[in-house]
């Protein structure tokens, strides 16, 4: 491993805190990328599938939201962890597709789950790196004596934010929700977290209109031919693929090295490296750059696509549910909108991992 300089301003460490359980929910509608839309030929779709590894995705119906998916995930997790709703002292919702502009979705879920009034609630408006940021906020809150369990919810219905005629993004994103419970532990294991951001590149992934800088108007929702040759409206997501690729392969390997060095761990010590499920070509490139054995890098993007901040817990539910031995050490790495990125070195040895379930409207 090459010599690296540690930037400790972006590095945090915690003891006696652990991930207790993870549950993930996906919609029941399966989208096959080969025949997703008439605007993309089968040959073009095959090329995207080969490059990204994304063959299928899940789409929520028009009346199903991130809150709905997370609600079912939370119900499942609380039940299977055999804890009471009243033992949850904080709820954090990470999403870029909230139910409302206000209030935050955490408050909607606070009501639906019937959490106590003494439970703090807030949203984090963040995309692909949101699981790392959310875990960091939870670990930090758990340093307080009067906080025992935190419910972290990650939910996205990104299928509703990208245009079907946009060949650069339309085959990438899927919908999902997850619930993670983090709490105190007697096990003296140290978790290391790095968080990073580069606002100079905020335009690389964005929705240009629909906010208060560029409010919705008569033209902002109309799909038009854009300068990059793709059709989309100003209220649909754009992504500068080459810029994001360069950012990821430059920043992410160094960040993982920093986290490993500060944890006094090596690649060999880690059971699994669980990456944000953005693009298999990118992740394979990072794995080769760091000499990570392929068996240590699980993928779920072939089934679910890029589900933003849900992708790490979804991959755990999908790919680690049936492993024979609980992972002693794991590394999570996530990167995306902001631009932002982060790494966690932690343990899942005591984590209850639930299998992926489909959304049930009657729950």
Write the layout of secondary structure elements.
Elements: E1 11-14, E2 17-26, E3 29-32, H1 42-52, E4 56-59, H2 66-81, E5 88-94, H3 105-113, E6 120-124, H4 130-141, E7 149-157, E8 175-184, E9 191-197, E10 205-206, E11 224-225, E12 231-232, E13 238-239, H5 241-263, E14 272-275, H6 280-290, H7 301-304, H8 311-319, E15 330-336, E16 340-346, E17 352-353, E18 357-358
Parallel strand pairs: 2-17, 2-18, 5-6, 5-7, 14-15
Antiparallel strand pairs: 1-9, 2-8, 3-4, 7-8, 9-16, 10-13, 11-12, 15-16
Description:
By secondary structure, this protein is α/β, with parallel strands linked by helices. It has one domain (7-363): 3-Layer(aba) Sandwich (Peroxisomal Thiolase, Chain A, domain 1), CATH 3.40.47. It contains eight helices and 18 strands. The protein has helices spanning 42-52, 66-81, 105-113, 130-141, 241-263, 280-290, 301-304, 311-319, and strands spanning 11-14, 17-26, 29-32, 56-59, 88-94, 120-124, 149-157, 175-184, 191-197, 205-206, 224-225, 231-232, 238-239, 272-275, 330-336, 340-346, 352-353, 357-358. Strands 2, 5, 6, 7, 8, 17 and 18 form a seven-stranded mixed beta sheet that branches. The termini are far apart.
